[in-house]
Amino acid sequence: MGTRRWSRLSVAVMAVSLLTACSGSSTPSSRASSSSQAAGLPAERDIETTRAMKFNAAPSPDWALVASGHLWVAGVEPGLARFDAATGQTQGGLHIQNVCLAMDVGFGSLWAASCTPDRPMLSRVDVNSGQLMASVELPEGGPAEESSVGAGEGGVWVLSRGVPQHLIVVDPSSDKMLRSFPAPENAAAVRVGLGGVWVSTTNPGSLVRMDPGTGRVIATIPVGEGRGSSH
Amino acid sequence: MSRVDPESNRVVATIKVSSSAIEGGDIAASDGAVWVRVSDVLAAKIDPQTNKVIDRLGPPAGSGSVAIAENSVWITAHDVTSLWRVPQP
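^ inputs. structure came back:
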């Protein structure tokens, strides 16, 4: 089974209009249940009543990614923790802290960006051995929090923080910053694949397709409620 | 959730996945399923053949992430310091 986010899906790119923001708050279960029925969604199943297994993961399990049979979870001791994806058995991990955006897999590696203020970094990890292969220093300001890394289409793509934003491209053959392109206004996250660089934006919600070679905008696609055919 | 055809650059489906705004989220896609980390519950599963939500796991627990492995899906919830493995057919 293909397991990569977004780009592995063979015929389509999927996006949510509010992509990759891991800082929300809880909603009471009873309210969620009644409102989900009103919205025509399937009834909520309590995860504890399924065959789900719960694992200890402290202090703050956040971004997760599966690669080569291993589950990687940011925010778990020692920083970026590794588990057996089939059993949940802990397999140690790496001292990579402050991973504040979604990770990606590409070029035989897992890529994780850290938002440490004085030393923003893109870490490259061998997906098979679990060893740190490279630490690529990112420009001042660092990556946009709650965004994502996109690995593929000739580079590893990171959205910068601040205004104006840029798409930073790291060369996987040298582990150095290759170039940067201006990012669309209000850019939220980036993924790559299917021949394009895909950037989600807020206000208005859209998915912007860019050419990986030139950074030129090929299409701006309005997304979210009220767009396209509804289900 | 919007599904976009990369050939035409057009939205081919818009799928309601949550009864409220997603305060924190994530997407994981495989050939057989698309999982979305939502806020009104823990996560919603979409059948990419029908573009419909076919499962929703709760209760809500703030934000987190979702990842697909062979025969399972993993869900994190940092507000409750939890990591789950949910077996899949």
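The two ends of chain A are 26 Å apart (CA to CA). Confidence is low (pLDDT under 50) at residues 1-31 of chain A.
thumbs up if we can close this ticket
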